[in-house]
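hey m, so remember when u said the tokens were messed up on ur end? i reran from scratch. heres the input so u can diff it against urs
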Amino acid sequence: MVRPDERLRVAIVGLGPKGLFALERLLHHMHDRGAQTRLSIDLFEPHPVPGAGPVYDPRQPGYLLMNLAAEHVDMWPATSHAVPPAERLSFVDWRGETAGPRYPPRAHVGRYLADGLMLMRRHTPPGVSIRLRRCAVEAVEQRGGSWDVVTADRATYAFDEVLIAVGHGTTAGEPHMTHDRSSFADWVQWPHTAALVPEVFPVTRWLVPQRVAAGATVAVRGFALTFIDAALALTEGRGGSFAPQSGHPFRLRYTPADADAGVLLPFSRSGRPMLAKPDPGLAAGVPALATIALAGRAEILALPDGFALGRELMTILAANVGAALLAANGHAPLAEPWPRATQSARRWLQTACTGAAPATGLAPAEEVEQSLDVGAGLRPPDLPWALGHTWRSLYPALVQRLGGDGMADGEWPAFLRLAAQMERVSFGPPPDTAAKLLALIDAGRVDLTHVGGATLSTSGAITTLRSARGERPVDVVINAVLPAPGALAGGNGILGQFLADGHVRVLSSRRGLDIDPDATAIGPDGQRTHGLAIIGRATEDSVIGNDTLSRAMHPQAGRWALRVSARSVREVAGAPLEAPA
């Protein structure tokens, strides 16, 4: 038992958006508890802009855009008491531009998040203290009934509650990022004679002329959103410019600059591109789509524990894709969805579950162009559009139902392969960014000759990118694949330490750490690890869909904050610190 006059000591390790949102929930509940509570909160974040973190760093260039629309960015739940109502502004209201870009620069969102942290600290409730410690955390160790947080400068601080909210790992080994996979150097069996750039972000550090010279031939591992950001950094970021093509609603023309990289050669396993986000007006103009999605979400939420992917979830997905395609093409709703569309959707989904990219008959650039045409209403909605729309529409229900024991353990490998393909058609770049990619391809700055299945090799002094379509010597290799979510036994950092010490577990076929609904870590014996909670990418598969700024889908941080705030009341009353969830 802790003396009644002592404050409950809370640490939040990692203050990007996930940690920031957890702090908001904790302060909200502490405001509601009133002045009788006493709590100290230490925030550990080495990034120069706490609240934003590396992904939303306000110092990054303006051409790096969100792929979440501005109207969905709001760090304040409607009922939040963390700051006064007049200061709880959505991102759109905060920027003061109702007609601003639908997909804003990530830097602008970072400033919004950092401003939110400042507001929370300004309005800290009575009895609560907040300390921001601008340092990396190297270890979190259990000591009796408390936890020691050890920083990079070897300082040690003791806490009753620790929330781990680290985000993306890095291949360069930043010490506070704790769930990195095998290094890129291992993946390509380095050293090669070409220069290696191990990551993309921040682009102002890694993609500068000293690392990637003007005119260089550059192989880029990865062909998703991070590749597009790298391509823009090495072209538009070097002084190149885009201009509209006359007679076309969205296509662009690229004019290079002297400092541009010469040519970028992306390569990935599948070689398939991320499809452009469609104009939301396309779906909004078909009222039946909302009805179809509502029914689909209800079916997913009604699935029994341990449901089967192929027999149960796949049936719901295929039927919803077929119905959405039928409705979007102007057909009256039927009791039974369009059989041909449903069958096509099921074949696509089944192929995706094997890990293969379903065949389209189109070259990668043609896939991107067709997605732009469909999304702009220039072509009728097609199967990829219906797949993407269905996944986005049903995703909140998938997040709620798949976590924990929702789906049978043996189904997870196939689901992860399916999710990778569905994310490719659902959560791709904004239309403007996709149009820039096409313009770079047209200008010869991006070459897709070797995009599928290429490998690197070195002979003598030359490093070569080889594929079934030939080979190309390269000067630089860039890794544009972010570390996978989750945690690995034997990994470095605090997550690997938690696994080694038996404080956490990873369930069969999952990548991330298992947690209770209130984010409390679950140990190998299935029991709660008191005082240790984890949110975000480290929990992927126990909780799915962590890479989002949406506050509506993941209640774990709010439940953690409610439990911790209640514990602070019991401490003041002199009751035992630990309480059931």
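this time it looks ok to me. The chain has three domains: 8-51+128-177+484-572, 184-274+432-479, 280-426. if urs says something different then somethings off w ur setup not the seq
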